[in-house]
Amino acid sequence: MHTLAITLLIIVSIGLIGVVLLQSGKSAGLSGAISGGAEQLFGKQKARGMDLILHRITVVLSVLFFLLTIAVSFLSV
């Protein structure tokens, strides 16, 4: 069971790295970080299309990553 959890953790980790690298940058430089944060806070920029799909996959994979990490730590005890 421990080996299965570690194998799933490695697969989810590689998938999470790939999905994060596929996402486009939201801002360019320091000025984009300041103004981009305000626009996202007030909802002027909505993610659509591929960005929305990649965002949702990132959320799902990150939750799986944390759950599998906790499972591996409990199984190794």
UniProtKB/TrEMBL annotation:
Residue stretches spanning the membrane: 53-75
Main location per the UniProt record: membrane
Protein localization: Cell membrane
GO biological process: intracellular protein transmembrane transport; protein secretion; protein transport by the Sec complex
Top-rank taxon, per record: Bacteria
Membrane topology category: Multi-pass membrane protein
GO CC annotations, alphabetized: plasma membrane
N-terminal signal peptide: none
Keyword entries, A-Z: Cell membrane, Membrane, Protein transport, Translocation, Transmembrane, Transmembrane helix, Transport
A GO molecular function held by the record: protein-transporting ATPase activity
UniProt xrefs under InterPro entries: SecG
The keyword Transport belongs to this UniProt entry's keyword annotation: yes
Keyword Protein transport in annotation: yes
Pfam families: SecG (PF03840)
Family: Belongs to the SecG family.
PANTHER family recorded: PROTEIN-EXPORT MEMBRANE PROTEIN SECG
Function summary: Involved in protein export. Participates in an early event of protein translocation.
UniProt name for this protein: Protein-export membrane protein SecG
Organism: Lederbergia citri
